[in-house]
Amino acid sequence: MSSAYGDRDVREIRDAPDLAEREALLASRGLSAPGGEGLVLGLYEGDALRATGSLVGDVIQGLATAREDEGGGSAAVLVTALLKAAAARGLGRVAVFTKPREAPVFEDLGFRRLAIAERPASGLGAALLEWGSPGIGDWKTDLARRVEGRPRPSGVVVVNCNPFTRGHLALLEWAAKLSAWIHVLVVEEDRSLFPFPVRLDLVRKGTAHIRNLEVHPGGPYVISSATFPTYFTRPRPGSSDDSVSELHAALDLEIFRTHVAPVLGAAERFVGTEPYCPTTSTYNRLMKEILPAPRADSAPVAVREMPRVEQGGEAVSASRVRDLIRSGRLEEARPLVPDTTWEWLRSPGAEPVLERIRTRDTRH
Fold first, then answer.
1. For labelling alongside 314, which of 17, 82, 334, 359 has CA 20 to 30 A away?
2. Where are the extended beta strands (E) located within 164-259?
3. Cis status, amide bond into 34, omega within 30 of 0
4. Does 330 map to a domain?
């Protein structure tokens, strides 16, 4: 694709030399290519690349403008081109990450601000905004309708359950004993080895005996590629991914506190300790920092952490179950999962998922 804007034009970047030039521009602004891009655009003046940006699913990422072009409207031109491309692909809603000081530029283009997070220790900050519909207002209205009449205050547990294990079950049973009502939000982003419909069904079947608990799809505002993209990627050794992941985790938690918790009437969030995954461990640490802190704009949410359930001297985890499947030792996973999960794992419908696990070494 190519579009003219005065003496400049927007072009799709595909060739290796152009992609290398684009990576150099990103690096000059302290950024790296996000990966997984479906479309990469560049704003050119002649042969000179002045700005770049990309679409990763329904998220605008990898935005950078040459230093000499800051404040000159290049970013607005590029974002407008990306929005047009997104609309042509049938996307009604698009999110964008940007620096907090640049959020007003996007608001002038019709974006709505979702959250801002700043991490003084790393000097990083980010704002998350969205454009189009359905947006967060629509999502909150739908969620409020689904939870109408449920007891308040409530407790909340956010889970991926890839797959649903006895550790997850113990956490949910513990939370249900401590709260009048528990809302379970299952991560809806379909980037795990166990597909979302399977994960949601396993959680619902595995918790059917808990009468004060309700399971919901997490939607696009709870640990998704828009709110927490680095949750789904494997950190690169020696990179700045740890700081970026911390920033994304903080953004996700800001959205939870500001938008999700009030709709659910959440006074507590329950979580299990994380002995293995550094990203989830960081998320838990920030949860205890961000959610309970006194603030004028939203009510605090207490965080209650349960020690991870152990079996055979090791913590019960979904990653351990996947490792056993990957190494051809499915039978050894039997004590780690509830009967409902085990029945599914032994069913014919599970075979394509098991085969995918055996042949792929992915984070989730």
1. 359
2. 182-186, 213-217
3. no
4. yes
